[in-house]
């Protein structure tokens, strides 16, 4: 590891998933890092080594950085920008209601440091931004003595630290190759392919990667529907497909749909960028449409299972109106994937909203969430009205007519399903993650419904 004296002084603006991971990992690599955020309570907690998000190994790195005096947290980025060689912008860029990316937070962060930046320093955009944003940042900065670069993040929630320290690639875009090399030097001790390019290409790489992953998941979910229609087994089909080295097995798993804070935003943003440039991205439009259909397919399966059907009698059509009036449904999993407590863009939440809209009464359990909304007031904005949070999976299924697995938490795979069957009003389950053993569930007395399974 590089000695601290040999490291650079880095300012990270924003202490969310990306900013906090970036700051902690750069400190771990030997740099002197200051992380700024406008949330006073968050800065106070982080300064005490308390990490407010669920992320493997992150709390340890934050504590390490503080202990070694390589990492500190401040409220004002303006006051410290003049002392830093590099400034990484890691603030949210959410999608607005009109489909455009909100750059207000990014521009505000840039404005907070613009006048105090040290001449010769480098401003690095790590936030995900629309293709073509780099010139706008340069114009807003208005400094010819400060360099600009784009360094998109490829961090998966739940494995963000590993993704930063052992990435598949490091992409750095700048109009000045020497500037890109300066940014690349910050990653000197990280073993990964290095891609140096122009900023527009760097911005496009980020969108393209997420769009392709979304396309892969949508393809698998559509394939599961085909398997049901022709009476094939999707598990066998995907095993045969995934062994092809040109395709690979990653992301070849049916589910309730893709979601999270990145994929929905980035796929829609890429469609918008293409449209603005005069290209109709029909393929990606189809990927998004299939994802919406998948949410409805899962709801339809729950409705059929609740009434004693297997969900595989016929392929669902858009005209199907699920009837769940007065039905008690146990929702197992609410986060958008296992290993995180993030509910943003969660397909599980979107399915739950549709279930409520069809008249279902919902009790839900997620290992990452507490059962007391008074302790987690932030949850209420994400949850459907009337949903009851349970303290365990067995509590959630008690008295339910049907259960649905929406997040792939390992806990659900090891649940005592025989006991769960006894707790339920009717032992019926929709496995929207295909993570359970159908034979074991049927042996426990369940009517089992998966995705594309015979």
Structural summary, described in words:
Helix 12 crosses helix 13. The longest helix has 32 residues, at 199-230. Residues 1-5 and 312-319 have low confidence and may be disordered. 40% of the residues lie in helices and 13% in strands. The chain has helices at residues 17-28, 40-47, 58-67, 78-81, 104-114, 134-141, 160-165, 177-185, 199-230, 234-242, 263-276, 282-306, 347-357, 393-397, 410-413, 417-423, 438-443, and strands spanning 9-13, 32-36, 71-74, 86-89, 122-125, 147-150, 170-173, 194-197, 328-332, 361-365, 388-389, 402-405, 428-431, 447-449. It has 454 residues and is an alpha/beta fold. The termini are far apart.
Describe the secondary structure blueprint for this structure.
Blueprint: E1 9-13, H1 17-28, E2 32-36, H2 40-47, H3 58-67, E3 71-74, H4 78-81, E4 86-89, H5 104-114, E5 122-125, H6 134-141, E6 147-150, H7 160-165, E7 170-173, H8 177-185, E8 194-197, H9 199-230, H10 234-242, H11 263-276, H12 282-306, E9 328-332, H13 347-357, E10 361-365, E11 388-389, H14 393-397, E12 402-405, H15 410-413, H16 417-423, E13 428-431, H17 438-443, E14 447-449
Parallel strand pairs: 1-2, 1-4, 2-3, 4-5, 5-6, 7-8, 9-10, 9-12, 10-11, 12-13, 13-14
Helix pairs in contact: 1-3, 9-11, 9-12, 12-13
């Amino acid at each position: 590891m590089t000695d601290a004296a040999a490291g650079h002084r880095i300012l990270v603006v924003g202490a969310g998933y990306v900013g906090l991971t970036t700051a902690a990992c750069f400190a771990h690599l030997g740099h002197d890092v200051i992380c700024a955020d406008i949330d006073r309570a968050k800065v106070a907690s982080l300064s005490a080594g308390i990490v407010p998000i669920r992320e493997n190994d992150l709390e340890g790195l934050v504590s390490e950085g503080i202990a070694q005096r390589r990492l500190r947290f401040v409220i004002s980025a303006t006051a410290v920008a003049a002392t830093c060689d590099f400034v990484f912008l890691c603030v949210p860029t959410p999608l607005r209601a009109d489909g455009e990316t909100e750059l207000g937070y990014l521009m505000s962060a840039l404005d907070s440091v613009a006048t105090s930046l040290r001449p010769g320093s480098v401003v690095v955009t790590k936030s995900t931004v629309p293709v073509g944003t780099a010139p706008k940042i340069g114009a807003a900065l208005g400094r010819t003595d400060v360099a600009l670069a784009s360094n998109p993040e490829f961090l998966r929630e739940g494995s963000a630290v590993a993704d930063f320290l052992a990435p598949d690639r490091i992409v750095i875009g700048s109009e000045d190759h020497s500037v890109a090399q300066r940014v690349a030097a910050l990653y000197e001790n990280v073993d990964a392919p290095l891609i140096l390019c122009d900023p527009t290409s760097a911005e496009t790489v980020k969108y393209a990667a997420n769009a392709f992953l979304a396309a892969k998941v949508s393809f698998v979910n559509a394939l599961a529907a085909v398997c049901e229609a022709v009476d094939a087994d999707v598990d066998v089909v995907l095993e045969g497909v995934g062994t092809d080295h040109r395709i690979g097995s990653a992301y070849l798993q049916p589910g309730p749909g893709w979601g999270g804070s990145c994929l929905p935003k980035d796929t829609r943003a890429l469609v918008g960028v293409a449209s603005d440039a005069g290209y109709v991205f029909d393929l990606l439009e189809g990927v998004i449409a299939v994802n919406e259909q998948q949410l409805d397919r899962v709801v339809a399966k729950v409705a059929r299972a609740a009434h004693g059907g297997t969900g595989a009698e016929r392929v669902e059509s858009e005209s199907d109106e699920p009837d769940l009036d007065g039905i008690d449904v146990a929702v197992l999993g609410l986060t958008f994937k296992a290993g995180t407590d993030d509910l943003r863009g969660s397909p599980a939440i979107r399915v739950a909203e549709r279930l409520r809209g069809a008249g279902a009464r919902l009790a839900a359990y997620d290992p990452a969430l507490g059962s007391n909304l008074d302790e987690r007031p932030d949850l209420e904005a994400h949850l459907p009205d009337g949903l009851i949070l349970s303290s365990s999976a067995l509590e959630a299924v008690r008295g339910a007519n049907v259960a649905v697995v929406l997040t792939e938490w390992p806990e659900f795979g090891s649940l005592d399903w025989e006991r769960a069957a006894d707790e339920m009003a009717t032992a019926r389950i929709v496995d929207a993650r295909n993570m359970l053993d159908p034979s074991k569930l049927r042996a426990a007395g369940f009517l089992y419904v998966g995705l594309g399974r015979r």
